Amino acid sequence: MSSGRPVNPRFAEDVHLDQVAPGPAIYRPRTEKAVRYITVADKEGGPDLGYVWASDEDDAAAWVPRGPAGGRALAEGGHWHTRLTEAKGRGILPSQALAEILSNPEGNRGRALPGPLTAAPNSAAVKALAQET
User: Fold this and answer.
1) What distance in Å separates the CA atoms of residue 37 and residue 120, rounded to the nearest whole number?
2) What is the mean pLDDT of residues 41-55?
3) How far apart are CA 104 and CA 65, in angstroms?
4) Confidence at 75, pLDDT banded by 50, 70, 90
5) 115 by DSSP, 3-state: which?
6) Alpha carbon distance 32, 9 (integer Å)
7) What is the enclosing helix (H) or strand (E) of 76?
8) Which pLDDT band, with edges at 50, 70 and 90, does 49 fall under?
């Protein structure tokens, strides 16, 4: 009892694929390779807000909020994430992005502390440090 028409008329239509522009370029959010990081201190004298870390080996970088800093640390993350995204969009290495942050250390609620970068074995170590009280 076939009429030659598909049961659902949509099945008879041609398939069209639309090309979608990619989203913003971002560094990888984690790595098992060695990282270097900077501390972001609260401008109002509260606990440190978090860390910005980077690894050129895996083209990775991210913001890690400190748990004890609470909502201020989470809110501050948008600023550092935006700066990292802009740096990746310009095609610079993660270590260069950290150097830019240190040359212009002001955030919304925090400020990147000057001084040498601190080394960690990987991004998970920085995340664990951020959870310490």
Assistant:
1) 8
2) 95
3) 19
4) very high
5) coil
6) 51
7) helix 70-89
8) very high
Structure token pair of residue 46: 């509260």
Q: Which long-range contacts (CB under 8 A, 24 or more apart) does 43-47 make?
A: 43/107, 43/109, 43/110, 43/111, 44/109, 46/72
Take residue 106 and report the two structure tokens written for it. 């002001």
Q: Please give the residue that has the higher pLDDT: either 120 or 5.
A: 120
H-run or E-run covering 123: helix 123-131
For Cα atoms 27, 78, 132, give the angle at the middle one, nearest 5 degrees. 85
CA distances from 14 to 5, 10, 17, 20 (A): 15, 9, 10, 19
Report the distance separating Cα 60 and Cα 48, nearest Å: 22
pLDDT given at position 46: 86
Query: What residue ranges do the domains of the chain occupy?
Result: 33-131
For the chain, how many residues are written? 133
Distance CA 91, CA 82 (A): 14
**Helix, strand, coil: what percent of the chain each, to 5?**
35, 20, 45
pLDDT computed for residue 102 by the predictor:
96
Identify the pLDDT of residue 77.
93
